[in-house]
Amino acid sequence: MTNNKILYLITASFLFWLGGSHPSPAEIIDPAMLSGDIRLTLKRGVWKTWEGEPVYQDITLDLVCDANECDREVWGFAPKFNQADHQGILQTSQRGRLWNLDVQMQISPDPWQSLEGQADYDIQVRLHDDNQLIGTYSGTLNDQPVKGEVQGIIRPHWSKPVANHRPLRPQEHPRLIFRQDQLPQLRQQAKTPRGEAILAQLERSLDQPIYYDGYVPTGGYHAAGYCFLSLIQQDQTAAETAWQITVNSMNQPGRRLLEHSTVVAGVALAYDLCYPAWNEEQVQQVADWLATQTALLVKGTAGNGWNPNPASNWNARARGAAGLAALALLEEGDVETWRWLKVAERNIKRYLTIGIGDRGFGSEGDHYSTEPWFLTVMPFLQAYQTVLGEDLVTRSHAAWFLPQYVTRMVGEDGEVAIPSYGRHRLSPTGSIFAVGLGIVPERLLPGVMWFFNRHWGRNGDNSFGIELPHEAAYVFAGYPQGVTPQNPAKVWGRVVVDAQKGFFTFRNQWRDENDFVTSIFVKREKPRGGHWSFPDAGSFRIWGLGGRWATAGMASDGKQRDENVVLLPEKQAGKTAKLTGFQASADGSGMVSLQHQNWLRSLAVDYSGASGVPGLFVLVDQVVDAAEPNQTWIMHTQEKVTIQGQQFTLEAESGATMQGTFITPSDVNLEFIPSETGGRIQATGRDRFIVVMTVQSGTASEVEVLGTGFNPQIQVENQTIEIIEDKIVLKSLKEGAN
Description:
By secondary structure, the chain is an alpha+beta fold. Helix content is 28%, strand content 30%.
């Protein structure tokens, strides 16, 4: 435990357990069951007045326990009350079947809700099933009585101790990316071919313009790059250049907390890396500025567009920067630093739980997810591990962030892209790998390293993913030694499913720009307020053989017409969907079915070659009880389009083609509507849509319909396609399942 934490909790009572009246062993809670991250929700635990009357809201208390020992520190969060984190102290005791907790909680204000005060809760809970807790509580908030039910859950510890971690020494810097005693080894690495290539890319990145404004001010990151160069090359001139850029950055804050977060993160990194080279006055000037800005990013502001909602990229960027700055200042005099760190940590954990799915897919889409990650979130996670010796990645959704993008990225060397989702149809770059290599879990690292080396490392474009100067320090220190790269198919397979968000990716191989990647977003979670949400469910993407057959539309205004869907009334389009079927094969093939309001969709992907082509795709769409007899089916593409009768043909620059055949409606009306980035194929008709699409380099396989009726059988070479109710059944998938 750090000295600051002890100082901040000096008033806490000691933990004690009372034996009581010797209950029988069957009645006693096994202390081992009370181990993990424990979350207790107190119904109606906080209140505030509305039009003169008290309005009650729930508050959730977070505890960290290990058998019969709990941290004295307890934290609360009541998002319907306000957006602040509330700190308290805890005493626990055990009497028979009941676990008794006394909590003294300081209720904090947020920028919009000024109410604050003291809450005292007397809580009694018992075990219900293996990891559930139920009970009651009573207490007061600002001397007004509160009481109600308690529901709790015990989860495994999120944090994982880092092996052989060394406690932080007083005034030790650098510390955020690597530790001081690693410097001699890093200086030796600078003489290797890899080290020389990284430093050369750093020099190139330092020649780029510095932006002190815009959505991503880069001054602090440039300063950090010069500071890293100063450390590695023992060059005082580089540290002096860094000082001037740091002063310029501190004097030009971002216009909103979104932009200001990158200023703070960059200056925090520069402070840490240049600490040995700057004089005492310079160090203190930056430390004072960082302390003020950290408090600002933790508290937020009522104006200027601030968004503290857990899944928002605003929250992720600001709280990641706040946590990074707090770790830079930890143990350097300000007791409040520990509290800033804990609030930042709690916000990042909520972001990872709510905003990021269990396989790394973000609720706000690709651009809004990746940008905060490489700017502030990954740096915070790395620094937390390096400074405190606690790994927040391996047991969290953060573990899959890079593997998920490895599964979706297609290209050669550093020229990679993804079939993107969300606003601003931008693909992530090598930056997320340069900054994130050091925190990838060991079990997934061989697949990530295979991909990284192939595209940005010595076997790729030799840039090591570095775009902003500070990224050089991360890839320099984080490049793993002694890891044998393996093709990702051997590490985590060709199908990745984010069950929380409902995002499915099917890939045939990892080889080059001709790889097939197909994805579909089911949107299983109910949209939460306060962040960007997809305007639809069921949209898909198809890339392969160098063609971008089914892509996102050009616009970023959140309209379903910019997706690949059957158009529904706007009031229905943004709602969630239900997964009704899923299959997957080891070769990357699979099937997904969903229900979205009164729309049923099934997508089948076949890479087996049974159809005579490398990629076969089947879609079945049905709208039940539609108000309008005619429905509209749309698919966006970047390729050249020709239409003839019931078919459309797309042709890519690579010479590959996609041929799509509408089995139904029999009188489908097909048209192509061009746009600046390609255009969309639009089909209208009265019957459900059954579409068979083949992708090939030569002649397309013949699509043959066998029989008639509502569920026709379709033959494509040796592949048999059946439609049973609302699901597509492929012969190859059936055989694979057997």
